[in-house]
């Protein structure tokens, strides 16, 4: 099994990717925005997607979308082919696209909205936290993408503040702030070392 950054050579998988996403949503009975093969091909060509292949057989997929001048990144279309489910592949794909996003868009906030408990669990393990929709992108185009979802009327009735999906966010700046708060500065460490040296070597 290989999970790689997608490119034009993977165009032949566009149809099966769309079919797998749509079939999965129908089986689960959850709302999901539809994708077209043409749209998927754009993601493959731009390098904003990862694909899992078992030899030449399609196994899984996920792609990146950017919003507000690339200040927000979302992972969409996460799917595992039925033949490869319950093997931990979804987490591997999600981890791959997460790391790829951090490398390609290091300053962007990474977020997602989902109804799937399995995806929520993976996101949490990667460092996402549940947030209100107000902390996500305000880009009109993103929310327009929800129009093909059967639950869109719920989103609209709640003025886009809440829906059946849960919003989750990974903010790289917040992660750095937490690290800085936990890690003493080198100046503090130097002063502490001097105090320890003075204490242990002071004359009686």
TrEMBL record:
InterPro entries assigned: Acyl_CoA_acyltransferase, GNAT_dom
EC number: 2.3.1.-
Classification via PROSITE patterns: GNAT (PS51186)
SUPFAM superfamilies named among the record's database cross-references: Acyl-CoA N-acyltransferases (Nat) (SSF55729)
MF annotations from Gene Ontology: acyltransferase activity
Keyword hit for Acyltransferase: yes
Domain N-acetyltransferase: 1-149
Keywords from the UniProt entry: Acyltransferase, Transferase
First-tier enzyme category under EC: transferase
Superkingdom of source: Bacteria
Protein name: GNAT family N-acetyltransferase
């Amino acid at each position: 099994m290989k999970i790689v950054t997608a490119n034009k050579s993977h165009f032949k998988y566009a149809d099966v990717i769309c079919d797998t996403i749509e079939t999965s949503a129908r089986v689960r009975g959850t709302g999901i925005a539809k994708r077209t093969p043409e749209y998927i091909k754009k993601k493959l060509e731009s390098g904003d997607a990862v694909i899992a292949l078992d030899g030449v057989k399609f196994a899984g997929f996920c792609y990146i979308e950017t919003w507000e001048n690339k200040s927000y990144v979302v992972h969409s279309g996460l799917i595992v082919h039925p033949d490869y489910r319950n093997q931990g592949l979804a987490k591997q794909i999600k981890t791959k696209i997460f790391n790829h996003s951090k490398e390609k868009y290091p300053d962007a906030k990474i977020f997602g909205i989902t109804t799937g408990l399995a995806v929520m669990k993976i996101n949490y393990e990667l460092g996402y936290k549940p947030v209100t929709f107000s902390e996500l992108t305000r880009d009109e185009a993103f929310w327009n993408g929800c129009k093909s979802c059967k639950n869109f009327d719920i989103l609209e009735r709640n003025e886009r503040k809440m829906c059946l999906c849960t919003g989750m966010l990974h903010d790289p700046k917040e992660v750095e702030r937490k690290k800085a708060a936990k890690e003493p500065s080198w100046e503090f460490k130097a002063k502490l070392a001097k105090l320890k040296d003075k204490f242990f070597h002071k004359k009686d």
